[in-house]
Specification:
By secondary structure, the protein is α+β, with helices and mostly antiparallel strands. The chain has 2 domains: 234 residues, Thrombin, subunit H (Beta Barrel); 94 residues, PDZ domain (Pdz3 Domain, Roll). Helix content is 21%, strand content 41%. The strands form 4 sheets. Strands 1-2-3-6-5-4 form a 6-stranded antiparallel β-barrel. The protein has a 6-stranded antiparallel β-barrel with strand order 8-9-10-13-12-11. Strands 15, 16, 17, 18, 19 and 20 form a 6-stranded antiparallel sheet that branches.
Length: 340
């Protein structure tokens, strides 16, 4: 009775009436959670657009689209490559109803990233974050604009990090590394939208929804990190992404104690296959070699190789360090350009 009178008295004085009980604490926590999601949504809403494009299909054209994230005031927008595949232009619609024409600047199917540019108005850019700082269990918000006039906001957590999935462009294949897995629901049309942390920083570009039977309720986002920033810069500057090619297939593994002591490293990449007549084959790289470094950069996983094999490495003689039967040796490889 005394507790009830205390709450009534608090109400009459205009004070918060949340009980100091587990249920009350939970209510306060929910309010804090809601405030974060609301603030993030309000901050990002002007920077997320609905993209509409059309592409050739047989003798006609097919309409399609998704979402995009504004990254510069003069109209550059990141989206997923599959959203604009086969298209050259279209339109971007924002939550305030503004519609602007867009041109496709460049698309990279091997990272599932693309850049389009809207013209006709100054836009509100989003702040890009760093997915490398994410932790499993961290709150994230997925923001898209699938309907054009009303944004779609869902919240969840980072359910896993370090995921990967393969991509293909013609004959060229690549694995997108460090993909973010989240349980924030991704609706149709959210591809190309933003995955955002609690500080309203874009940490990923929503790219795929796992189908039922594989992991229903899970979605993926291409991370925003140093590698993807370079990809976006290349798309803006050149309209494409040039990559160096070694011609190896492999996977990460711990190093044997002798090799670890000699190299000062704990992990490397075991070469499973060397493509005939490739730069790696010409250099003398063999299956079962343990790749330790390329051009002085330590290699502990396939993502490290992809980071080093950028446009600057094409046609340049690089020292490759490998361990073979317990001995560490240096080889010289000249990467060629990866073509589709």
């Amino acid at each position: 009775m005394a507790m009830e009178l205390r709450y009534i008295d608090a109400i009459l004085r205009g004070e918060p009436s949340v009980p100091d009980t587990p249920a009350g604490i939970e209510s306060e926590a929910l309010d804090a959670y809601s405030r974060v999601v609301t603030t993030v949504a309000e901050t990002l809403a002007p920077s997320v657009a609905n993209l509409r494009v059309s592409r050739r299909a047989g003798r006609g054209r097919v309409d399609g689209g998704g979402s995009g994230v504004v990254i510069t005031p003069d109209g550059f927008i990141i989206t997923s490559a599959h959203v604009v595949l086969g298209s050259e232009r279209g339109s971007a619609t924002f939550v305030d109803g503004m519609e602007l024409p867009i041109d496709v600047v460049g698309a990279d199917a091997l990272s599932d990233l693309a850049v389009v540019r809207a013209t006709g108005a100054e836009l509100t850019p989003a702040v890009l974050g760093d997915a490398a700082r994410l932790r499993v269990g961290q709150l994230v918000v997925a923001i898209g604009n699938p309907m054009g006039f009303s944004g779609s906001v869902t919240a969840g957590v980072v359910s896993a990090l370090g995921r990967s999935f393969p991509t293909q462009d013609g004959r060229a294949t690549r694995v997108i590394e460090n993909v973010i897995q989240t349980d924030a629901a991704l609706h149709p049309g959210n591809s190309g939208g933003a995955l955002v942390d609690s500080g309203a920083r874009v940490v990923g570009i929503n790219t795929a929804v796992v189908t039922p039977g594989i992991g229903q309720g899970l979605g993926f986002a291409v991370p925003i990190n140093d590698a993807t920033r370079k990809i976006v810069a290349s798309l803006i500057g050149e309209g494409r992404v040039r990559r160096a090619y070694l011609g190896i297939v492999g996977g990460p593994r711990p190093l044997p104690p002798k090799v670890a002591r000699a190299s000062g490293r704990e992990r490397g990449v075991e070469i499973v296959e060397v493509i005939p007549d490739s730069p790696a084959a010409v250099a003398g790289v063999r299956p079962e070699d343990l790749l330790l470094s390329i051009d002085g950069e330590a290699i502990a996983g396939m993502e490290d190789i992809q980071r080093v094999m950028d446009a600057d490495a094409i046609g340049r003689a690089l020292e490759v360090t490998v361990a073979r039967r317990g001995d560490v040796r240096a080889l010289t490889v000249v990467p060629s350009e990866l073509t589709s």
